[in-house]
Amino acid sequence: MGDLSIETFTFASSSGKLVSIPNIVFGCGHDNSGTFTNATSGIIGLGGGNASFVNQMHHEIKGKFSYCLIPLELLLDSSNATSHINFGDNAVVSGPDVVSTPIYKKESPIFYYLNLKGISIGNKTVEFKSSPISLPGYDRGNIIIDSGTTLTYLPDVFYLNLELLLMHSINATRKDGTYGGLDLCYESNENGTIDVPKIVAHFTNADLELSTTNIFTQMEEGIVCLTIVPGGNQISILGNLAQANFLIGFDLKANKMSFKPTDCTKY
Predict the structure, then answer these.
(1) Are 210 and 198 a contacting pair, CB within 8 Å?
(2) What is the pTM of this model?
(3) What 3-state class would DSSP assign to 158?
(4) Element (H or E) spanning 75, and its range?
(5) What pLDDT does residue 206 have?
(6) What string of DSSP letters covers 16-33?
(7) 178 — phi, psi (to 5°)?
(8) Most buried one in 4, 46, 73, 192, CB count within 10 A?
(9) What is the structure's pLDDT at 140?
């Protein structure tokens, strides 16, 4: 149910001139479901499918794009901060503090898979496990990175091991019950956060240090909850809360992704 159309899309450019790209296919659905509200103007397709926005512009952007997502709390406090996206040569992420990891393509060309080897809390590491016995091929892409999914979903076994380590590492008062569907919740300090030892996600060739706000978010006044959840054993997803305040660059020709810690409000 909907309309499919073709239009010329025009962008501001780092060259100072406008860039127009003809014959971009886009659509408007008339029967939309899920978590979308009238406050959402639409979805931009950044995936690997033939009709995705980045593949339709492949000739102009040569497989390169990057985005910088502001943290959730800034979206909610009506500040003027906005997230940004770049296409083409201006999207290359560089500098001394950049880490890069391979992108893997699997059954569905739409998704970008990364390889997560484990997560460290302080000096202890939990290894990625998709089931009690590791499935073959898990080290060739085991987690999707998705800007359109809010939470981070991990396999149940891996999640339970990580949750156990977190509970032993966090010195804060645990709250019973569920808040907005999230189960691991604590009383926050006056800054609205909790003290957690250093958290590092270990990807192939890239150690990504996450801030507390990448994995905990304030659900109510004085209560923060873990935004990593068990997702069964079907699919693992690195969601957008975990990606906030990183400049994240995709190079689909070189099949690699780069992360640079960035204050996205100043980017």
Answers:
(1) no
(2) 0.91
(3) helix
(4) helix 72-76
(5) 97
(6) SSEEEEEEEEEEEESS--
(7) -115, 135
(8) 46
(9) 80
Report the distance separating Cα 222 and Cα 190, nearest Å. 8
Read off the pLDDT of residues 53-95 as tens digits, 9 standing for 90 and up.
Answer: 999 999 999 999 999 999 988 877 767 889 999 999 989 999 9
Report the distance separating Cα 189 and Cα 172, nearest Å.
Answer: 9
- Confidence (pLDDT) at 232: 84
Q: How many other CB atoms sit within 10 Å of the CB of residue 48?
A: 18
Which residue, chain included where needed, has tokens 């693992």?
236
Considering all CA atoms of the chain, what is the largest pairwise distance in Å, rounded to the nearest integer? 57
CB 102 within 8 A of CB 256: yes
What are the residue ranges in the chain where pLDDT is below 50?
Answer: none
The residue type found at 2 is G
If residue 56 lies in a helix (H) or strand (E), which one and from where to where?
Answer: helix 53-56
Q: Smallest Cα–Cα separation from 183: which of 230, 140, 221? A: 230
